[in-house]
Task: inverse folding
């Protein structure tokens, strides 16, 4: 069982005893650079320790225009505690070895409002740093309440970029409101304000919404009540959520390795996933990526199902159904809560759409919700059919935002090569779809016969295309050599030289194929003739593990034992998961894709390999102090985006799968 801890600061006794006496403290950690999320589907706030580093106060796809920083002296430190089963955080402040106060943070369950309750024995200063485009309006007179609130309206102009080159289509309003012993001090010469909290109690509200009227209505509502009321209803919201999950505390036996840590991580990841899921259903891909990515959502959906969060898993898929229903297409990623904003990459109608189909049948298997799958079947048919035009010699290419390419494990010149994973996804997802269609009365028999024949043909040629000398090759350059390559495509300029349009406009752009079949933007094509890329076959370790995670049957598991064993032996020798050996100057570093820990653990578990225990402990060892995994690792240290839903969900599912298999043995 997770040990119950009760921590009540003297200054909180009178105010919060009725609520906080019931709190089970879950995650406890120092502020070490880990990032956590607080959200209710309408607002998502990311904190690094005491500081807000990213804030989406409107739709999830909206400009993050502010940060909030604790201005502290050299002796000041903080540690943090998260209430078990919730995204309610307390930061305990200290000066030297003496506790000096605390910050209680949460996003209200019912409104777009971040609340920070400050209890301090001495003055503290928090700096609200705003982007230069933010217009500040002093509007304390509009906040007339018995609490004598003061505040400022923060106005973001219409057309502000929220990611790469994508703009927010309307004015975004957010309200800063202060009560108690807090006051605002303008910082001269910068677009920032200091929030001065004098000794005693203060409350800071950051209120959002879709439009000005909603922001002000939300503000009046939270100011008219009490923080205790907001905290109580938020606590109920989270406890109801936690009760609806699978209770692994009663499922996992006492003999489960590192049981307490696993249970803590299950709770951490469940809250992480819930906090970053929008009311529209899409899960934000991470604090720098305010979009709904199809591939990322698949790993999230698998994690949600493993946690018994079936409603949340269904809402992920429903997000894409609503997009497809409106536009008849889905791209690599779509804005959350904004119409007509698509993140279009190279070949973005392959790979990710296979995940989408499989996700639907994972949900069906877990929930038996056949009515929903029937409802979204037009989207599934489109997702299967639209990929077929990309088949060349029974191979599909890579999606341009694919993890291996985006992470630098494969050069972008390989995008039109045959992709083992894309092709596997087409075979396996298509087969699931055909199996289901055969039980329905949705398509004529001729359609099913022709589709099944195509799947069978691609499957029959898979081994000759991607298997050689006991190796599952990641790429096959023969596809690019035989394909009629598009003259134009939307994505990344392979040159990205001086004056590149990507650098100028801050996002992916239209590119054109040069005489050497390299894709460059309009600014680079005439002055930077990239040489022809030599056809090269690549073998990445992750690909041999993917069939185990995905449950694919195209390649028998026995044939994949050797590459998986090679990966395992390398891990046993080096102690690290090696996706790629990276060199920086004279230093060699081990580069790891963040989900490779879970991939290898899943593979070893399904192969009944006794060394799965080693990967179980390894996967748990790299989770950060706030219970999340990162996008990438260098020498097992987090790199790239922290608090990632995709990697965290995949790795957690692998841990649960291993623990449950041990229970059954």
Result:
């Amino acid at each position: 069982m997770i040990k119950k801890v009760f921590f009540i600061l003297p200054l909180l006794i009178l105010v919060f005893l009725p609520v906080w006496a019931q709190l089970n403290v879950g995650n406890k950690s120092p502020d070490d650079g880990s990032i956590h999320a607080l959200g209710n589907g309408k607002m998502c706030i990311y904190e690094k320790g005491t500081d807000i580093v990213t804030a989406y106060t409107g739709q999830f796809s909206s400009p993050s225009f502010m940060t909030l920083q604790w201005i502290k002296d050299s002796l000041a430190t903080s540690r943090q505690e998260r209430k078990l089963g919730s995204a309610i955080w307390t930061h305990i402040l200290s000066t030297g070895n003496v506790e000096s106060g605390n910050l209680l943070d949460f996003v209200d369950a019912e409104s777009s409002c971040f609340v920070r309750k400050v209890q301090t024995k001495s003055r503290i200063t928090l700096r609200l740093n705003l982007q230069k485009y933010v217009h500040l309006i002093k509007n304390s007179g509009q906040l007339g309440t018995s609490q004598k609130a003061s505040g400022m309206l923060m106005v973001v102009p219409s057309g502000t970029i929220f990611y790469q080159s994508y703009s927010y289509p309307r004015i975004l309003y957010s309200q800063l409101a202060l009560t108690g012993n807090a006051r605002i001090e303008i910082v001269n010469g910068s677009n920032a304000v200091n929030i001065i909290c004098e000794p005693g109690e203060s409350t800071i509200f950051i209120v959002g919404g879709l439009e000005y009227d909603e922001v002000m209505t939300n503000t009046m509502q939270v100011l008219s009540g009490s923080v205790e009321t907001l905290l109580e209803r938020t606590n109920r919201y989270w406890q109801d959520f936690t009760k609806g999950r699978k209770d692994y505390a009663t499922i996992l036996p006492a003999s489960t390795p590192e049981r307490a840590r696993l249970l803590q991580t299950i709770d951490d990841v469940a809250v992480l996933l819930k906090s970053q899921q929008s009311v529209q259903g899409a899960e934000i891909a991470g604090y720098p990526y305010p979009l709904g990515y199809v591939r990322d959502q698949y790993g999230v959906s698998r994690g949600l199902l493993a946690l018994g969060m079936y409603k949340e898993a269904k809402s992920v898929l429903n997000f894409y159904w609503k997009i497809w229903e409106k536009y008849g297409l889905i791209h690599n990623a779509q804005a959350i809560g904004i119409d007509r904003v698509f993140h279009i990459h190279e070949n973005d109608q392959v790979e990710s759409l296979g995940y989408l189909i499989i996700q639907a049948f994972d949900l069906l298997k877990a929930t038996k919700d056949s009515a929903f799958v029937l409802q979204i079947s037009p989207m599934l048919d489109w997702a299967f059919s639209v990929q077929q035009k990309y088949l060349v010699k029974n191979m599909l290419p890579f999606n341009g935002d694919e993890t291996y390419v985006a992470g630098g494990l494969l050069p972008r010149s390989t995008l039109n090569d045959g992709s083992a994973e894309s092709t596997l996804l087409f075979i396996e997802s298509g087969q699931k779809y055909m199996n289901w269609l055969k039980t329905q009365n949705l398509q004529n028999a001729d359609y099913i016969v022709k589709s099944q024949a195509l799947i069978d043909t691609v499957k029959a040629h898979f081994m000759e295309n991607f298997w050689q000398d006991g190796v599952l090759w990641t790429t096959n350059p023969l596809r690019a050599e035989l394909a009629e390559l598009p003259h134009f495509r939307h994505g990344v300029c392979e040159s990205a030289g001086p004056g590149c349009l990507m650098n100028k406009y801050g996002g992916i752009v239209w590119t054109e194929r040069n005489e050497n079949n390299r894709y460059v933007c309009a600014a680079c094509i005439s002055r930077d003739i990239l040489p022809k890329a030599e056809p090269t076959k690549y073998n990445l370790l992750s690909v041999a593990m993917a069939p185990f995670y995905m449950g694919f049957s195209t390649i028998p598991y026995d044939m994949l034992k050797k590459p998986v064993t090679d990966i395992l032996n390398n891990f046993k020798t080096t102690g690290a998961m090696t996706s790629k050996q990276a060199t920086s100057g004279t230093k060699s570093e081990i580069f790891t894709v963040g989900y490779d820990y879970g991939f290898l653990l899943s593979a070893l578990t399904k192969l009944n390999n006794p060394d799965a225990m080693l990967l179980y402990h390894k996967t748990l060892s790299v989770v950060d102090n706030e219970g999340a995994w990162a996008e990438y690792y260098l020498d097992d240290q987090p790199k790239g985006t922290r608090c990632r839903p995709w990697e965290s969900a995949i790795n957690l599912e692998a841990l649960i799968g291993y623990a449950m298999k041990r229970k059954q043995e």
